[in-house]
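G., the chain you wanted modeled:
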Amino acid sequence: MTGITFSDKYRRIATEEAWAPQEMMDMYRDLYESGKLDDPGFSSLWGFYGSSNEPRPVTVRRKLADLDDERLHDMDAAGIDFAVLALTSPGVQVFDRDTAIRVASDSNDMVKEAVDRHPDRYAALCAVAPQAPEVAAQEIQRCQALGFRGIIINSHTHGEYLSDSKFWPIFEAAEALDMPVYLHPNTPPKAMIEPMLEVGLDGAIFGFGVETGLHMLRIITAGVFDHFPKLQFIIGHMGEALPYWMYRLDFMHNAQVTSKRYEALKPLKKKVSDYLKENVYITCSGMAWEPAVRFCQQQIGIDRTMYAMDYPYQYVLQEVIDLDNMAIPDAEKKMFYQDVAEKVFKLS
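Predicted structure as tokens:
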């Protein structure tokens, strides 16, 4: 233990905490070593995390696979009372259709066992295979009945985005069952990665946020929330930069729709910023920075901004201390750490 005393005025619920079955990580390594997958983003991400013997990837692999003693010890040391577990990127979305369906189901069963072992410490998001949207919808139904609290989608699937209506059975099931969708980053697909990859900016340092922000914006501009108005998304890393672009997004979306410049951009019922404020929750995963947290609280909403650590990729005790010391009222800290998560994931 650290000897650090944390405030007891609220529960700290961490809402983007990665895990991975050892079997899936072994499959990643085999897929990378086979050279059969033409995906430079996957090769960059899991060529490093799956194969490197440097201290960071070795530690991350071990912590991803552990859902018991080490993870709980780390949570205790950081003052984290409860964690929402999500299958790490790229999840099952890098596999072929049948493999993805099997691994998603098996992974959900495995994390359900961990939640059952530690019901006072964990909840879980269910993984699905977007490669098979109708099967994914069935898996959402199965997992909802098992007590899962939402759905994890690790952004694009072989370069395809959820803005394509062929994926919308997933949204239909999520909305009907009131299950939020966590849109987690993936490494950019082949069509956009090269300028980032050549200078080492393709991963969490920049590429993740760019790719996932693009994905969320594609979902909004495709009219997903006009079709599914009650559907709720969650995006991490302080909103993948979208909150800071809202003014320009509203202005330029209106300008482009009005001028009929792009066939793909159609009129929406609301402004882009309205969907961000009404259909999207923001977590601070990997961005334990008070100015960004407060900006999101002010612009997206105190009731839509919540805490996440991004374990085990980012595990820094000082970040928890810094957020505990934010210059905001305790009631707002409680909303940030506890109340919003309890609402969106139905934890209370």
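The chain has one domain: 13-344.

Shout if anything looks off.
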